[in-house]
Specification:
Radius of gyration: 14 Å
Number of strands: 3
Distance between the termini: 17 Å
Oligomer: single chain
Helix content: 10-25%
Shape: flat
Order of helices and strands: HHEEE
Strand order of the largest sheet: 1-3-2
Largest sheet: 3 strands, antiparallel
Length: about 80
């Protein structure tokens, strides 16, 4: 089942409660602990705008996640992360 964990810019500029969690980091950590078994992430370079670190401060190995596949394509790096 595909899950879109896109968090809006509002989450980074104002205090927001997401699923009972007061911060974006807490919401992402909760989702990783309880809801997500596999993630397919396509990473593509962007030269304009602000960067956002999706897993900043989140210890994926401590949550039993590991990178199981990496594939480079002409426009992106595809990474699959699974719960072990």
């Amino acid at each position: 089942m595909a899950t879109n964990l896109a968090l809006t810019p509002l989450c980074s500029t104002a205090p927001v409660v997401i699923n009972g969690e007061p911060t974006r980091k807490a919401a992402v950590t909760l989702a990783l602990k309880e809801l997500i078994d596999e993630m397919h992430i396509a990473i593509s370079s962007v030269l304009l705008g602000q960067r956002e670190q999706l897993f900043e401060g989140v210890d994926l190995p401590a949550l039993s996640y590991a990178c199981t596949q990496q594939v480079a394509s002409p426009r992106a790096m595809h990474v699959v992360i699974n719960r072990q």
